[in-house]
Automatic annotation (TrEMBL):
Primary subcellular site in the record, as a coarse category: membrane
InterPro entries the record matches: Mpv17_PMP22
A cellular component annotation (GO) from this entry: cytoplasm
Membrane topology: Multi-pass membrane protein
PANTHER family cross-referenced by the UniProt entry: PEROXISOMAL MEMBRANE PROTEIN 2, PXMP2 MPV17 (PTHR11266), PEROXISOMAL MEMBRANE PROTEIN PMP22 (PTHR11266:SF86)
Protein name as it appears in the record: Peroxisomal membrane protein PMP22
Subcellular localization, as worded in the UniProt entry: Membrane
Family: Belongs to the peroxisomal membrane protein PXMP2/4 family.
Source organism per UniProt: Dichanthelium oligosanthes
UniProt keyword Transmembrane helix, yes or no: yes
Keywords of this entry: Membrane, Transmembrane, Transmembrane helix
């Protein structure tokens, strides 16, 4: 850890490291890793918020929006910052405790399976409700036509199905 901190603060150590080590991207990456070691929760919260914002901006542009919806962008960033970052941080601490810090391939596969069966469905459902209630300001439950009972919207089920399938890929990355 001291070597990483020295390289970040003092520039390239030894002067013979080549162009890449002195680049802005390399120094930024080293600083990010240092922050991740020194302040893991804060760094993960900020990272989750920024990634949520970038992904929503790209999604809006690819969907044909002429202008970025700033309220939607902010609310998605808030979800990443306030929930995604902290939940992921503490969830992986729990997994490390359960699996006693092992890092072999078999243990990683078990962690991925456990995550896909437990936290991924929960996170997807929670996000869908957050998105529906807060971001789109819509009711998640709609009254059935003349039946007097509440039914969940079919559109929400479609989204959940697609997100659950896709969530298998996010853990592997």
């Amino acid at each position: 850890m001291a070597a990483a901190g020295g390289a970040v603060r003092g520039g390239v150590k030894g002067g013979g490291g080549g162009k890449a080590e002195g680049s802005l991207a390399y120094r930024a990456w080293r600083q990010y890793l240092l922050q991740l070691q020194q302040h893991p929760l804060r760094t993960k919260m900020i990272t989750a918020g920024c990634l949520a914002g970038v992904s929503d901006s790209v999604a809006q542009k690819l969907s044909g929006y002429q202008n970025i919806e700033k309220r939607r962008l902010f609310l998605k960033m808030l979800f990443g910052f306030a929930y995604g970052g902290p939940f992921g941080h503490f969830w992986h601490k729990i997994l490390d405790y359960i699996f006693k810090g092992k890092k072999d391939t078999k243990t990683i596969a078990k962690k991925v399976l456990l995550e896909q069966l437990t936290s991924s469905p929960w996170n997807n459902i929670l996000f869908l409700f957050y998105y529906g209630y807060v971001v789109e300001s819509k009711e998640a439950f709609e009254g059935g036509e003349g039946q007097g009972e509440e039914t969940i919207s079919f559109r929400a089920i479609e989204r959940l199905d697609g997100m659950y399938f896709a969530s298998g890929f996010d853990t592997c990355l």
